Amino acid sequence: MQLKYLLILATFGLFTHCAEKSASEFTLEASYASTAPIIDGKVNEPIWQQAKPIRLKNNRTGKEVQESALQTHVKASYDDKSLYFLFECKDPDIWAEFTQRDEYLWKEEVVEVFIDVDDEPKTYVEIEVSPANILFDSYIVDPENIDVPATAKFKLPGIRTGVTVQGTLNKRDDEDSSWTVEMAIPFEDLANSNTAKVGPDTEIKLNFYRLDKNQGKEFAAYAWSPTGKSFHKPSVFGKIVFK
């Protein structure tokens, strides 16, 4: 009985180790932009043609999203001053009713990126953008007990976002195609008391998410490195690699 118990513990430990290792191996290659992209939600700049995409998975199961009409791809780029992200979201029902910055966008449809620039896993920046190009930005200091009004007081002064919709926003009785989001985030906006200077030589951990709430379909949550439940799980954040 004791031997059987030890074998179970050993197996569990091996499984846990492998799970943690696989989570840490999520890497996204960011291509250098010799010319900064125009932040308008369009994908016609050369940098987005050469950047390698990653595809978000079902956050609960970790499985690939098989239905092409629901898939989400993310690309990353950078220059000496800023990080750039592009989300391409397939979506048959695009809607967003919030109109003010820092409203609770996660209650509707939204894309999100969490960015951690230091060795303190409980602190990171959270950014959300809706199909209506409404922004929510916050600084998390305790992912298990988030004081939303307090964290939302944080502002990224130089962030810029742009959205285009391939369809009709908030017309729920037709079928849409997709929406795209571009973000430009100055490195200096990400600096904090632990990391005074942020740039391409900084080790940056991050994760990407999307919430999709289509009429007549089950609510869906997608992630690059799936968390199983709450998005606020910094232990599974991937890393960005500056090409």
Automatic annotation (TrEMBL):
All copies of domain Carbohydrate-binding, residue ranges: 39-242
SUPFAM superfamilies referenced in this protein's UniProt entry, alphabetically: CBD9-like
InterPro entries listed in its UniProt record: Carb-bd_dom_fam9
Source domain of life: Bacteria
GO annotation terms (biological process): carbohydrate catabolic process
Molecular function GO labels: carbohydrate binding; hydrolase activity, hydrolyzing O-glycosyl compounds
Protein's recorded name: Carbohydrate-binding domain-containing protein
